[in-house]
Amino acid sequence: MRGTVKEFGTQRGWGFITGDDGKDYFVHHTDIRMKGFRTLYKGDSVDFEPTETDRGVKAGNVIPIME
Length: 67
Hints:
The chain is an all-beta fold. It has strands spanning 2-9, 14-19, 24-28, 45-53, 56-64. Strand 4 (45-53) and strand 5 (56-64) form a beta hairpin. The radius of gyration is 11 Å and the shape is globular.
């Protein structure tokens, strides 16, 4: 699924992505697939795998889209 970073706290290491379906997905820095320091910035476009958890919906295998 494609989405846009709604917010991400670099110091916290987590934030939210709004998917193309309009839902907000929790994202943790360990789910970001990139080399080096793993962070996201508000407004970044990403591809991710939506996952249902016992705590709600989560974004997994997050790949930033370099445009």
